[in-house]
């Protein structure tokens, strides 16, 4: 039918892909191709159709029309996930799908365990040996026999990757692989991606982080509103250009915002020598009214643990917290009553009630506001929800929609929104924009800045360095549970923060920054 | 679209009506006042239990001990009234308090010791049965007095059986509790995601303990009604009723995965369960076949409900949260 199919350089060729869900078109006549041994980024705002495209390629959802040729094989409309895997298409999802109780090897060979002849029992020795060979081939710091639950998120991701590689995948699709990784871990991943490419594997890379796309990709395909906008070659790729194509306009980056200005004033919150053995030690800082305090550090440096202790979720061993100058014993209820808000790092597991409506989600945190003598006023709850929708431009603006059905960015807006409708004094926000597209990110930044202008103090924990340098008046850098550096005035570069968080000596200049 | 919505919203009622129409064709006896009031009488016990028992699945658990609590409470009530000779009101208060205490135990073990509710309440089912056997000395007790006690289950007021009034009051209170009181919101939140609930200042443990107390309380109340209605109390009095309660809840749209449920739905569910049972009797289907039908109904209800409220265990590990593959939700 086509000549491209015979082009040996092309691994994947999608033509005129169209897909709609009950009348709502999500992909319209999209062409997409990937070469062999290529790192190709697929970018677009939330709802642009990236995930649907991947679902179609991997056989999760059938397409309505269009043709796909992979490695010389015509892919039928109703091909299955298994068929895609057998052809050599593997996906590594944002949310990892490993079984925590099993070992690295057991996870890698799940469903394809080597069997002994005869009784067909699992040959554990061979499985472990094979897994270790695979691990060593890529030089990953893993042991075949470690249980998954003992591994960090970053290492789990490596296991996912090995799982894909063990099937001899020709195309590995990575959906937001760095959203849970620190900068160092990310740059390790990038090296691995380069290594994969050198081994002839193609990587389809999905990310909201433009620097990564810029640093990694050989080509970039941009989708907008379900349509193909552009395919850029290496030399055409610049972050600004990609963003312009994605959102259809140029994004103004206010350069002055990158200079930190120290806020003066009364301390709203003061933390003195806070210690929780094994988690963090001697943490002291003052949070001034209207200040945005950034907390940087690698994952596991104790960032989340500190804010959880201040909010009153976890206990601490020693030290003191002062709120409005008075001694304060943290507890979640007292925190909420005193005007704290807390946006946790894991939106799905800790932030939202997915199967419950937006109104109820927002109402829950504000039961004190919407109820009188334990009696909930539906009208007040609804009004509060509408206020949240208006403040944060939550889409769709349907108060009855279950929050689990919203896009990631809008879910995060609900999580932030349920605090904004209160009389807030301190907002603690952990990884505010993880897994959120650029447009929603900017809106959230604007919201946070606006809050600070209104006198709310914000503690912002983030792995996203541009985010911190963009937002914060002051940045505390944690390493191994201690504050090892404070950046408070003048300009700071991401590199400086990164160096501090990874221990100044070893801090090299990472090419992705 | 709106017709669809109406159909969806009230689909249970339509199922109930359809069932009644079918049964009235199958059996001429079905639509007689005698039969209908018999059904209502039996439905009352289940529906009263549902009013409290619904909070267990809503908070993400389950209560299998409601039948044992009901049987025991009949025996306790009789013991207080006819062995110790306490006045009726005091006997009832003690019986209901015993119900609350059992719920407290179930709740504390479930919430504080992190033992799955399934196991805790199954154990409770067993030890409560044992206590009932001990107090009743293993015999079937016939309750013929006090007269006031017999009115609770068997009396009529303005032409309607007294249990119906009890049921209606329970349904209204439970509906208000779930729908309009902060406890209801907290229970739903804990069932939907207890970490989120905790970060919103809700104490999941207390909420759960409250759920099991409510559950045992209405079970004890239903047990009083049952003992009064049947004029007897024995350890096996309400055997298997927990399954009927769970069936009614599930048919009524309560998710066993937590976070959603409706008291009015449970009432309709109880009616559907009651009419199915009644239909089987009217059609002279041997009693040994009834559990098969009950089992199939639970499965069907679960399957149908997943189309509307997908329980957590049916969720694939949500793969792409950024772009929900749902029409009408463009981000």
Note the gap between the termini of chain A.
44 Å
Helix-and-strand structural type of chain A: alpha/beta
Quick one: overall form of chain B?
A: globular
Domain unit count of chain A: 3
> What pair of chains forms the biggest interface?
A-B, 64 and 40 residues
Helix fraction of chain B?
55-70%
The appropriate CATH architecture of the largest domain in chain A is 3-Layer(aba) Sandwich
> How many strand units of chain A?
24
Strand order of the largest sheet of chain B: 1-4
Strand-residue fraction of chain B?
Answer: under 5%
Beta percentage of chain A is 25-35%
The low-confidence parts of chain A are: 1-5, 505-513
What is the H/E order of chain B?
Answer: HHHHHHHEHEEHHHHEHHH
Domain unit count of chain B: 1
Largest beta sheet: strand ordering of chain A: 6-7-8-3-9-10
Query: Which descriptor suits the 3D outline of chain A?
Result: globular
Average per-residue pLDDT of chain A, rounded, comes to 83
Largest β-sheet summary of chain A:
6 strands, mixed
What's the overall average pLDDT of chain B, rounded?
Answer: 86
């Amino acid at each position: 039918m086509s000549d491209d199919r015979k082009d040996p350089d092309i691994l994947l060729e999608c033509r005129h892909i169209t897909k709609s869900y009950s009348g709502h078109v999500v992909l319209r006549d999209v062409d997409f191709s990937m070469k062999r041994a290529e790192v190709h980024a697929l970018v677009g705002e939330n709802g642009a159709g990236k995930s649907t495209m991947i679902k179609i390629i991997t056989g999760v959802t059938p397409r309505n029309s269009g043709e796909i040729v992979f490695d010389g094989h015509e892919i039928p409309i109703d091909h299955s996930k298994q068929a895609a895997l057998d052809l050599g298409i593997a996906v590594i999802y944002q949310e990892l799908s490993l079984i925590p109780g099993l070992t690295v090897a057991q996870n890698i060979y799940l469903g394809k365990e080597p069997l002994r002849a005869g009784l067909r029992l699992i040959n554990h020795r061979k499985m472990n040996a094979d897994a270790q060979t695979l691990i060593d081939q890529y030089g990953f710091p893993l042991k075949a026999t470690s249980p998954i639950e003992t591994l960090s998120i970053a290492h789990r991701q490596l296991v996912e990757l090995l799982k894909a590689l063990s099937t001899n995948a020709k195309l590995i699709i990575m959906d937001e692989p760095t959203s849970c990784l620190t900068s160092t871990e990310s740059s390790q991943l990038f090296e691995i991606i380069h290594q994969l490419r050198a081994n002839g594997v193609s990587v389809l890379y999905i990310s909201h982080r433009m620097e990564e796309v810029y640093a990694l990709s050989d080509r970039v395909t941009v989708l907008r509103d379900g349509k193909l906008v552009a395919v850029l070659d290496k030399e055409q790729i610049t972050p600004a250009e990609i963003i312009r194509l994605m959102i259809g306009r140029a994004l103004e980056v206010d350069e002055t915002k990158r200079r930190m200005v120290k806020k003066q004033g009364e301390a709203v919150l003061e933390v003195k020598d806070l210690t929780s053995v094994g988690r963090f030690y001697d943490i002291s800082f003052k949070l001034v009214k209207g200040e945005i305090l950034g907390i940087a550090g690698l994952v596991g440096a104790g960032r989340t643990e500190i804010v959880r202790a201040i909010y009153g979720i976890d206990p601490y061993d020693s030290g003191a917290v002062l709120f409005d100058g008075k001694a304060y014993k943290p507890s979640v209820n007292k925190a909420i009553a005193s005007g704290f808000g807390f946006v946790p790092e894991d939106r799905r597991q800790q932030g939202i009630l997915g199967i419950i409506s937006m109104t109820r989600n927002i109402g829950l945190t504000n039961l004190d506001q919407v109820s009188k003598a334990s009696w909930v006023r539906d009208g007040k709850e609804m009004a509060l929800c509408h206020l949240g929708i208006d403040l944060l431009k939550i889409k769709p603006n349907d108060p009855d929609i279950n929050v689990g059905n919203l896009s990631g960015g809008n879910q995060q807006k609900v999580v932030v929104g349920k605090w904004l409708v209160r009389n807030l004094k301190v907002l603690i926000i952990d990884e505010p924009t993880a897994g959120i597209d650029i447009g929603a990110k900017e809106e959230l930044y604007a919201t946070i800045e606006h809050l600070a202008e209104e006198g709310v103090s914000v503690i912002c924990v983030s792995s996203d360095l541009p985010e911190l340098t963009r937002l914060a008046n002051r940045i505390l850098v944690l390493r191994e549970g201690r504050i090892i550096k404070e950046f408070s005035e003048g300009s700071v570069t991401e590199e400086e923060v990164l160096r501090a968080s990874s221990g100044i000596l070893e801090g090299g200049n990472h090419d992705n920054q | 679209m709106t017709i669809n919505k109406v159909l969806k919203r009230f689909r249970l009622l339509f199922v109930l009506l359809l069932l009644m129409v079918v049964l009235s064709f199958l059996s001429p006896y079905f639509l007689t006042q005698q039969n209908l009031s018999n059904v209502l009488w039996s439905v009352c016990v289940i529906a009263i239990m549902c009013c409290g028992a619904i909070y267990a699945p809503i908070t993400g658990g389950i209560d299998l001990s409601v039948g044992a609590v009901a049987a025991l409470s009949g025996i306790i009530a009789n013991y207080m009234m006819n062995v110790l000779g306490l006045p009726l009101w005091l006997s009832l208060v003690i019986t209901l308090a015993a119900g609350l205490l059992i719920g407290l135990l179930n709740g504390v073990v479930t919430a504080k010791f992190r033992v799955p509710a399934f196991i805790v309440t199954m154990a409770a089912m067993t030890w409560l049965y044992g206590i009932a056997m001990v107090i009743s000395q293993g015999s079937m007790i016939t309750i013929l007095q006090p007269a006031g006690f017999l009115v609770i289950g068997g009396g009529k007021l303005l032409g309607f059986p007294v249990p119906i009034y009890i049921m209606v009051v329970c349904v209204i209170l439970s509906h208000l509790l779930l729908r309009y009181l902060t406890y209801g919101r907290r229970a739903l939140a804990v069932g939907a995601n207890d970490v989120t609930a905790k970060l919103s200042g809700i104490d999941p443990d207390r909420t759960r303990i409250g759920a099991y107390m409510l559950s045992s309380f209405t079970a004890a109340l239903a047990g009083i009604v049952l003992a009064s209605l049947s004029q007897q109390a024995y350890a096996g009095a309400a055997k298997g009723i927990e399954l009927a309660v769970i069936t009614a809840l599930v048919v009524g749209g309560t998710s066993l995965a937590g976070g959603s449920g409706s008291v009015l739905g449970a009432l309709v569910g109880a009616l559907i369960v009651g009419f199915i049972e009644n239909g089987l009797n009217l059609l002279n289907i041997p009693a040994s076949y009834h559990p098969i039908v009950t089992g199939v109904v639970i499965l069907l209800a679960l399957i149908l409900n997943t189309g509307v409220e997908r329980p957590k265990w049916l969720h694939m590990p949500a793969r792409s949260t950024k772009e929900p593959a749902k029409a009408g939700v463009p981000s």
